[in-house]
Write a sequence for this structure.
């Protein structure tokens, strides 16, 4: 099994936390970010190596900055 990047884990935790705080489903977030619905699940499980473009689209869909997705939860 491949070791998960610490950065991907941070993004995964943040995407899920912001999505749940907005009370939207993974499918709705995917629609808002214009990505495939399965992609959000992969992101939230830190299974995807994301592009900057994808991070930006998800951040915009969540109404947060890219920096917010990259900041460890304990440093907010």
């Amino acid at each position: 099994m491949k070791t998960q990047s610490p950065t991907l884990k941070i993004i995964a935790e943040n995407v899920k936390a912001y999505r749940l705080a907005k009370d939207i489903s993974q499918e709705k977030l995917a629609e808002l970010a214009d990505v495939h619905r399965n992609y959000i699940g992969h992101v939230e499980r830190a299974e995807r190596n994301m592009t900057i473009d994808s991070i930006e689209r998800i951040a915009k869909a969540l109404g947060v900055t890219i920096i917010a997705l990259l900041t460890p939860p304990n440093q907010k």
